[in-house]
Amino acid sequence: MSCMLNEIYDQPAVLQKLYNDYRSEVAKLVTELYKARNIFLIGTGSSLYACYAGAYAFTRFMNKIPIVIPSSEVSYVAETVGKEDIAIVISQSGESKETVEALDYLSKTSVWAITNSAQSTLARAASSVFCLEAGQEVSSATKTYTASLMMLYMLAACGTGDEMAKVGAIPYMVADNIEAVKGKISIWAAEFKDVADIFILGTGPNIATAKEAALMIKEKTFIPAEGESLIEFRHGPIEVVEPGTKVVLVTHNLNKINISMHYQQLSSLGADVRLVHNADLPDIGVKDIELRSTQEEAISAINMVIPFQLLAENIAVNRGLEPDTFRYINKVLNKY
User: Fold this and answer.
1) What is the dihedral of CA 75, 40, 203, 291, to 10 degrees?
2) pLDDT in tens, 186-244
3) Rg (CA), the chain
4) Is 28 helix (H, G, I), strand (E, B) or coil?
5) 3-168 against 171-318: fold identical
6) Which domain of life is it from (predicted)?
7) Which residues pair with 275 in a beta bridge?
8) What homologous superfamily does CATH list for 3-168?
9) How far separated are the first and last CA of the chain, in Å rounded?
10) What is the pLDDT of residues 246-302, one digit of tens each?
């Protein structure tokens, strides 16, 4: 078994421990979060996608719209960041080059770190540290990605016990979903093994899921994969679709933007369209994976990413590749 697969299976325990360790602690921060003029969410790579997905939870639970900024772009907004703001900075290693450099521009504000390394440069620079304690992660971000999201969800839900309870149910759902999707994922992986490209299209917070899924597939399988908004895909990129093109739609709410219409239109162009969702579909021949996810779309991204973690690992193995290594980069990109 690959380290990546082990790390995927670690997730329920990692998320449960994080919830147990911090659910009382974050309740003390509710006033500070509500009083903040702006909440900045900052990261790079998988951490940036966690920021994009996590922002929806702050909007849903706190009625605040966080400002998501890639670490490399913080210098452009440095003059607007002040003592009335909170910068939540995410880096699994706490040593990512651009994230460490961004800290120089955040000296005027309160920096809260979400990291898997309590002794990292990021942790040492922060006024508050939320350590993921996910254990060593060898392969692409799986358990540190979902743990970062879990921490953002808890911060966003810290003002109400009802919303925090919804977050607390996530580890159990993840355990169920890992087991539930294994069979279909092995079939999909065999069918995706030799494709030229893959398009993963999301809605709402699962636009970030699509981007994270595409990143993992590129890292582990070397297949060009693109993750983006389903709606934005319709505004131009759809021109690249050809007969047989693999397209996976990932959405929590099938009815919100009429997913069936998009499914049918892409299928009519000859695309091989799959669906990852949380609804009870009738048996109409759709190649789908149904997840046991939370009813709150704003905190659905953890469960929605699980099939893609398994898919990336399975495709890599099917292609005779080693899921636990990288070709051109290191696990921690702290220099070029």
Assistant:
1) 120
2) 999 999 999 999 999 999 999 999 999 999 999 999 999 999 999 999 999 999 999 99
3) 19
4) coil
5) yes
6) Bacteria
7) 249, 288
8) Glucose-6-phosphate isomerase like protein; domain 1 (3.40.50.10490)
9) 31
10) 999 999 876 667 788 898 999 999 999 999 998 766 555 678 998 977 779 999 999
Q: Name, in order, each residue with C-beta under 8 angstroms of 97's C-beta and a sequence gap of 6 or more.
A: 333, 334, 335, 336
d(CA 68, CA 38): 11
**Does domain 171-318 correspond to CATH entry 3.40.50.10490?**
yes
Length of the chain (residues): 336
The two most distant CA atoms of the chain are separated, in Å, by 56
Q: Which of 116, 129, 151, 122 is nearest to 18 (CA)?
A: 151
Whether the predicted pLDDT of 150 surpasses 90: yes
Q: Which residues contact 123 (CB under 8 A, 6 or more apart)?
A: 94, 113, 115, 117, 129, 131
Handedness of CA 170, 176, 179, 181 (dihedral sign): negative
Helices (H), 159-202: 161-168, 170-192
- Phi and psi of 264, rounded to 5°? -65, -40
Q: Where are the domains of the chain?
A: 3-168, 171-318
**246: part of which helix (H) or strand (E)?**
strand 246-250
Helix, strand, or coil here: 139?
A: coil
Q: What is the pTM of this model?
A: 0.95
Beta strands in 11-91 (DSSP E): 39-43, 67-70, 86-91
Asked whether 191 and 217 are in contact (CB, 8 A), the reply is: no
